[in-house]
Design a protein that fits this description.
This protein is α/β, with parallel strands linked by helices and 236 residues long. It has a single domain (7-211), classed as Aldolase class I (TIM Barrel). 44% of the residues lie in helices and 17% in strands. It has helices at 15-23, 34-39, 45-55, 70-81, 102-110, 123-132, 145-149, 156-166, 183-191, 200-205, 216-231, and strands spanning 7-11, 29-31, 60-64, 87-92, 115-120, 139-144, 172-177, 195-198. It is globular, with a radius of gyration of 20 Å. Bound molecules: D-altro-hept-2-ulose 7-phosphate. InterPro entries: Aldolase_TIM (IPR013785), TAL/FSA (IPR001585), Transald_staph-type (IPR011861), TSA/FSA_arc/bac (IPR033919).
Length: 236
């Protein structure tokens, strides 16, 4: 397998899958979000977070605030931070009304809280976030490259520019969020992006990196042959 400089995180909220990935050392860290928690059927945020931190005691793990105003987010951030030393508090760059959360990001960073600033889509947002971070405080800036690509726009120019801006401040790392395919890991690695968080189906493909493409024709036909046999279908 090709050596990667980019760190690969697992994006999900299934404790058993997280535990397995941690124990097998297939990823370097973990991210969760409200949608992933809902999908995984999480019923109790605190119980979930405590179980996750118990399962993953010393790798980076991000939990997101649920509030939609700075006062609520600040209270939630204090609780989330208390879950463990390895925890990053995810704060969205804006709330549902489009109001900037930068004042809160600045306030929390000044208290040395490790943040993962999420839902980022523009270089102006990246620049503002980096400006608000206290130098030396470990912080992730999560740019949703996949959701940008979903609009038909190439996210690479933004990702390249974001790497430069993030690396101007000590402690700040660029995180590639909404990964769509294994090739995104290679793209993130090539541009010097620090972290990419991947859904389970992409994590499973990581060992394929560097595989000999010449083998794939025979493998593909073998797959068809297996399915022909199990389906019982025939032409002649
Ligand atoms: O923690 C983060 C980003 O910091 C991730 O969980 C991030 O929210 C997810 O990668 C994205 O929400 C996934 O987006 P999508 O694949 O559902 O479009």
């Amino acid at each position: 397998m090709k050596n990667l400089n980019v760190q690969v995180f697992a994006d999900g909220a299934d404790i058993e899958q997280m535990k397995t990935a941690y124990q097998n050392q297939t990823v370097d860290g973990f991210t969760t979000n409200p949608s992933l928690m809902a999908k995984a059927g999480v019923e109790d945020y605190t119980a979930f977070a405590e179980a996750a931190v118990k399962a993953i005691p010393d790798a980076s793990i991000s939990f997101e605030v649920f509030g939609d105003d700075m006062e609520t987010m600040e209270k939630e951030a204090a609780i989330i931070q208390s879950f463990g030393e390895n925890v990053f508090v995810k704060i969205p760059v804006v709330n549902t009304k489009g109001e900037s959360m930068i004042p809160l990001i600045k306030k929390l960073s000044e208290q040395d809280i490790k943040l993962n600033v999420t839902a980022v889509y523009t270089i102006e947002q990246v620049t503002e976030i980096v400006k608000a971070i206290k130098p030396g405080v470990e912080t992730y800036v999560s740019v949703f490259a996949g959701r940008i690509a979903d609009t038909g726009v190439d996210p690479m120019p933004l990702m390249r520019a974001a790497v430069k801006v993030c690396h101007e401040k000590e402690g700040v790392k660029l995180l590639w969020a909404s990964c769509r395919e294994l090739y995104n890991v290679i793209q993130a690695d090539e541009i010097g992006c620090d972290i990419i968080t991947c859904p389970g189906d992409v994590v499973k493909k990581i060992p394929n990196i560097g595989r000999d493409i010449d083998e794939l024709s025979v493998d593909t036909v073998k797959g068809f042959a297996k399915d022909i046999q199990s389906s019982g279908l025939g032409i002649l």
